[in-house]
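Structure first, sequence second, as always.
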């Protein structure tokens, strides 16, 4: 009955948005409240779940998305994105530009949280697409596939790192196995799958489209790349320092502070304000106006993502994930496949890859130990399952839909299908690797 209620809620949300054209954020609020009541949350607690869900998801993403939007708009308006796009095209050529952005997404995705990588890379994708008249999904989806796979499979991202600790896996070995599994998942779910999506109509947000400036007015290539990639460099540097042995605890704490996503994005924005703004002859007041326009561009996206958090929290508070886990844990299946399946079903119902992964860990751990399954592979199997079935209760689904300005149907055909492909290929890679380890 629980799964039926979840399915009805998802269908209702799609109908409200697609058929009746109800504002997406309002639709989320309505469905979240109804879901809470139908799933048995005490009626006086439903609004608390909704508010907590909105607060939790926006608490972690609001600064990243807003500051990232400001930085992205400045990178576009200053001509830095145009310079980066032309440099990448010269390096890779139009024939191989897709592989160039995939490699960029993979390298950036290892140290960066998905949300940060998304808001940093979207302006670059749009600049390449508009300057060279290429299909936007064909170019954009492979890069986002790389970001998604690194988020789900590879430490130091939160879910795989937490799973490695719970399963007593070796973090370095998990990362090595994860790289082996991640590469084919990215290639199949990204460049190969996106060839079938060239015809999807998409007119991305114009806020991040770079002005086509004369070459003489563009910032230098080093300035453009350094400023755009500064958040990545800061995160990598801070992470490497804090992991180094025999460091002064005060310095470790300082670099942990500097390496937090909020502080990294703020530092990068301040640097960009000068390197791509003031030092390029722009007035500070004009730069601030660019930032104000950037906030307007992403305001509704923030609300929609908050709404998806409300639905996720209602489903978590109702105990949906625990009920599903109880139904599945006694099934007689290969442990790696069972771990993947439990994570996939919880992900479908709850919407959060992290919740799906961590919920599955507590259920599958006893079976993993008794069956002597390699814990490093179990981390990857659960991680692959947690990427499956991304749809309307997942914030990533809405980020992709709204930034790329797609219909619901085309978002399912592109984003949701890509996430399931990388999840299935990831499982296949884990099962194959299991034959040799």
């Amino acid at each position: 009955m629980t799964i039926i209620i979840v399915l009805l809620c998802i269908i209702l949300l799609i109908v409200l948005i697609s058929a009746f054209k109800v504002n997406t954020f309002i639709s989320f609020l309505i469905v979240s409240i109804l879901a809470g009541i139908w799933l048995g949350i005490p009626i006086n607690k439903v609004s608390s779940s909704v508010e907590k869900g909105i607060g939790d998801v926006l608490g972690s993403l609001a600064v990243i998305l807003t500051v990232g939007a400001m930085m992205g708009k400045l990178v576009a308006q200053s001509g830095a994105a145009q310079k980066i796009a032309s440099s990448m095209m010269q390096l890779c050529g139009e024939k191989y530009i897709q592989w160039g952005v995939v490699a960029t997404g993979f390298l950036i995705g290892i140290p960066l949280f998905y949300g940060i990588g998304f808001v940093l890379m979207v302006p670059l994708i749009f600049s390449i697409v508009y300057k060279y008249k290429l299909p936007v999904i064909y170019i954009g989806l492979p890069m986002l596939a790389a970001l998604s796979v690194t988020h789900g499979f590879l430490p130091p991202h939160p879910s795989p790192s937490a799973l490695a600790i719970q399963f007593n896996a070796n973090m370095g070995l998990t990362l090595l196995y994860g790289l082996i599994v991640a590469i084919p998942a990215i290639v199949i779910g990204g460049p190969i799958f996106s060839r079938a999506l060239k015809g999807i109509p998409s007119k991305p947000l114009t806020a991040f489209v770079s002005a086509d400036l004369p070459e003489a007015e563009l910032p230098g290539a080093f300035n453009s790349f350094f400023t755009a990639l500064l958040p990545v460099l800061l995160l990598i540097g801070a992470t490497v320092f804090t992991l180094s042995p025999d460091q002064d605890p005060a310095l470790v704490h300082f670099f942990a502070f500097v390496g937090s996503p909020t502080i990294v994005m703020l530092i990068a924005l301040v640097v960009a304000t000068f390197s791509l703004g003031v030092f390029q002859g722009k007035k500070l007041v004009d730069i601030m106006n660019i930032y104000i326009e950037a906030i307007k561009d992403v305001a509704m996206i923030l609300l929609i993502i908050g709404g998806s958090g409300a639905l996720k929290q209602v489903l978590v508070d109702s105990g949906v994930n625990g009920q599903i886990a109880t139904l599945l844990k006694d099934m007689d299946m290969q442990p790696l496949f069972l771990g993947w399946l439990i994570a996939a079903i919880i992900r479908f119902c709850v919407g959060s890859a992290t919740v799906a992964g961590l919920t599955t860990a507590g259920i599958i751990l006893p079976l993993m130990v008794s069956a002597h399954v390699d814990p490093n592979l179990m981390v990857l199997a659960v991680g692959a399952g947690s990427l499956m079935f991304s749809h309307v209760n997942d914030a990533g689904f809405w980020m992709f839909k709204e930034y790329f300005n797609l219909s619901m149907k085309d978002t399912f055909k592109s984003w949701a299908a890509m996430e399931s492909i990388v999840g299935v290929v990831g499982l296949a890679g884990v099962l194959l690797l299991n034959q040799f380890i």
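Margin note: Residues 2-434 form one domain.
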